Amino acid sequence: MTRDYSSVMNAAAALEAFSGFLTFEDKKEMLQAKGAFKAARNAFVYEALSAGENSEKLKEEVVAELAQMEALQPGYASTCGFVRDELCQRIDQEGKKSPLLRRTIKWTPAVLGLTAFLAYISWGILGQVEITQSIDTAVGIQQRAAAFERAVDYDRAIRNPFGGTSAIREMIAWPIKPSETELVGAGEFVSLALSGYEKLSQEKQVCGDIFATRTDTLSKQDIDLVQRVAEYVNQEDVKWQSPPVMTILEPIRQAFPCA
After folding, report:
1. For position 98, what pLDDT does the model report?
2. What's the CA gap between 65 and 70, in Å, rounded?
């Protein structure tokens, strides 16, 4: 018997995407990803045990099926191992409960989960960025920086660790999907930041060359640099220069110093 692991595997891949340095927004999304994984894991175990499967036999089959999946797709070894350990641990916990107790516990978090989901949707709607000022003003730069960060957050939310996307991830992330206006603003901010880097590079004020292997798409190094600039200009105590656009040059100098 081969079970459907798609929901729990997708949720695990989404959770594994969070590693290294995490911003406040990253941590908030990671908590949401943890909740989504736990819900998928618990649903998998509940459905299997509700069908009358023996817990020990279920564990043996889960281990075997995930080992087979890992053999077919070695790139998912880490995810398969994580899912296997989580499922086995949950099966041990739930296997000791009576069916009635299991049903009661299963539906209690659903009520709490609904509240959290509604809050998540509200956060997505209220978090939309309005772009009302021109890009040559401090407020206009900050608005576009916020739009860029929202676009990056959405892109991270819909992608798994291997670069692909899924309908499930896009559905979960739809509350934070940026509008067309936000995407335009994000693009303007990317152009502004990379133009600033190019100017400093030509003037020999920075060292390193992120344009050495230029393609039609933004590289991770491009995105990291633009994100650094976005975080800098959106600080509460940022010191704006005159004209305001000159302010974006400071974090670029900091990122590529000449020793």
Report:
1. 54
2. 9
